[in-house]
Structure formats: structure tokens, C-alpha cells
Amino acid sequence: MQIFILTLFPEMFEGPFKCGLFQKATDSGVVKVDIRNIRDYTHNKHHTTDDSPYGGGAGMVMKPEPIFEAVETIKAEIPPKEKVPVILLTPQGRVLSQETAAELSQFYYMIFICGQYEGIDERVREYLVTDEISIGDYVLSGGELAAMVVINTVVRLLPGFLGSPASLLSESHTDGLLEYPQYTRPPKFRDWEVPEILLSGNHAQIAQWRQEQSIIRTKTRRPDMIKKGKLLH
Ligand code: 6GU
């Protein structure tokens, strides 16, 4: 997968892509991340990327020209037959879910535009962007952190990202239930013992216990997930 990120703050991306499994994925070629500064696509004297809003009001609005030019430059580097989603990170977008992540993981190329919270010229939305994503109902100052979250959910679904594909199957939000409690050695830490059943070696009973724990946990912590009918698949 090849991911392009358009941002005014490329430095923000230095951490998350250089650690742990993600670094492994970039090293092994499972994913390539190409971060581009929107400012590099400006031609005016001061390399301005924003301007005051028509009609007045507080804050600044991101100008359309550098964003269009950046996307068009990237598209010219991609084989023309490829379907390339152009995704704007914005609190006005559809809210990210595991289904959205699975859907995006099917594309080979993707372009993310990190908007600043104050705003982006509407013509970017209307004539350039193909999808708008939010990561939840709260406000971030810009789309950068949101892009990292979206990209993380997508890339970890790619074949070759996780050590064992089984861990994708049992995890929260994939089978619609929260994960069951996990323990490791020692069997007794301070006064607290690991549930006996997990030490029993009886795999059928362990599987049943875990399923029950998942259901209890989901009912108490996320009853909304059960109401949504996610339990049914
Ligand atoms: Cl994608 N951007 C901003 N600025 N705030 C957000 C968001 C995105 N998703 C949730 N809050």
C-alpha cells in the first residue's frame, strides 16, 4: 500500500511511523508512507497556504490552489487506471469504524489531506475530495493526529503487518465483542491469582470462559455495541 499525506506539519509524523510494527511494515515494503508539505506547492512570495474567510469571521481558511496542485502532482505519479481515494480528515466527516478501516485497506494508493480545524476552502471538498473522515465527536486542532489514527487502523489489517493473523480475528471490534481478560505469568502476583480455568489446559472450557467474559464485558461497558446488532455475526 502506498499512502500520501498532505500536511502543513510534516514533523508531526516523525514518531508514529518509525516505531514497532509500523516501522517493520515500512522496512519490509508492506506500506510506503510519503509525507508532503502543502507549503511546497505554493507559488506566491510568502508561500501562504491560508487566507481570511470571504464574508468575514474569525480564523483562517486553507487556500485551494496548493492542495489541488499537491493532489494533482501525486496523481500524475500514479498509474492512471488506479482508483485513488482522496480523504479529507475533518470533524464533519463520517466517523471512523472498523468497517471503514477494512474498506480502506482494499486500496493500494490513498491520499490523505490534513485540514486545519478552522477550515478549508469548500471547493477542495466539492471537487477534489472523495471521502471525509472524522475520528470521533471531539475537536482536534488539525487533521494530522486523525490521519495517524486512520492510517494505523488500516495498515495493521494488511497481510504481513501482524505476526499472526489469528490475533486479528479474536480482537475487539472485529467479532463485535470486546476482548476477554488476558493474564500471563506469574500465576500469583501479590494476592491476586490468575483464574484457575486458564491454568487447567482444558481448551474447550477456556474458549467458553473467554466467550462469556467477552459478552459480559461488552454488555457492561459497551451496551451500544450489542444494541447495534454487532453480536450477530
Ligand atoms: Cl479528522 N479533525 C479535527 N480537526 N478534529 C477531529 C477530527 C478530525 N476527528 C475528530 N475530531
Explained architecture:
- The protein has 233 residues and is of the alpha/beta class.
- It folds into two domains: 2-155, SPOUT methyltransferase, trefoil knot domain (Alpha/beta knot, 3-Layer(aba) Sandwich); 169-225, Trp Operon Repressor, Chain A.
- Helices cover 34% and strands 17% of the residues.
- The protein contains nine helices and nine strands.
- A five-stranded parallel sheet has the order 2-1-6-5-7.
- Helix 3 (98-104) packs across helix 5 (144-155).
- The longest helix is centred in the C-terminal third of the chain and has 19 residues, at 203-221.
- The protein starts with a strand and ends in a 6-residue tail after the last helix.
- The mean pLDDT is 93.
- Residues 89-91, 117, 134-136, 138-140, 142-143, 146 line the site of 6-chloroguanine.
